[in-house]
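Final report, closing paragraph on structural work. Over the funding period we assembled a curated collection of sequence-structure pairs, and we close with a single example.
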Amino acid sequence: MRKQTAALIAATTALGGVAFVGMPAGAEEITNAVLNVNVQGQNIKVGDVLTLDATWHVPDNSQPGDTFTLDLPAELIPMATTFNLYNETGDVVAVANVANGQIVVTLSDFVATHPVNIHGTLTLQARVSQAATPGQPIILNWTGQATAITPSAGTVVGAKTQPEKYGWNTATGSAKWAIEVPGEKNNAVLTDTPENVALKCDTLNIRIGSQENGYPKSWQPFSPVSTDCTTGQLVVNLGNVPAGQLVHVEIDSTPNAGVAEALNDWSLTSLEGITGGTAAVKTYQGSGTGNGEALPPVPSESPTDSSVTPPIPSETPTPSETPVETPTPSETP
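Its predicted structure, as stored:
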């Protein structure tokens, strides 16, 4: 039975040249569309990112706007929001929209002209939430059979002794960076120069915490001597960082279009020395494929023999007989 699922799709969504205005009247929610699912990644820990691969198939003659929905467990945080499912020639077969713990796949106008054998793949990265319990299975049910993902405990971080920079990908697709500077440092100046991302200066957050009992369990605001931030560079004059303390500098950034790995250079200069390097973050995005076949053309009927009227041959006229007169001999005088 067809039903409306407009609440799961924005009033107007346009991606890759395919536009959906609300949900077409009579759109159907397709069940059991996923044939199998595979989880990539061994020894998954709390906080890690895993990859979900699935293959899908919908009934012949499914219509544009028809959808199928995949539910994500609360312990898995999707790392993409919206992505297209393309065929080999670049046509958008379907659009996947990720929101509110669900992946809603909507068929495009492509299926109207390719209504047979509509199928494809879907790939999505998801992070194991910190709310997940180590050793307790996370149940994923896309095929009618449960797939269990059992994470182990995350790594316990001890007190930092050297400056370090690291990054991670957020659920909105941005790349977030953190630079941590342990004391004692004097006249410390931090410079951050991204290679293929744009810094979001309004997200800059600087904190300080005590490392007396390991990595800080709580933080306090930290006021640097000065900051200078643009989309292309961040310079923070930290001044002096006391011994036993850790300064945490955090900022968000937007990766350039098409970037598979966000790169960000950094350096820290102080009276104690110079250090730095390059930090990298994978830009997790969903992807997928799709295809369908057009109906074969209906052959036209060949004319039957009875539809062809052969020409009627004309009769050969019968020659008329011309009488031959016998000449009368002339009389002899």
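The longest strand covers residues 197-210. Helices lie at 110-113. We thank the funder for supporting this effort.
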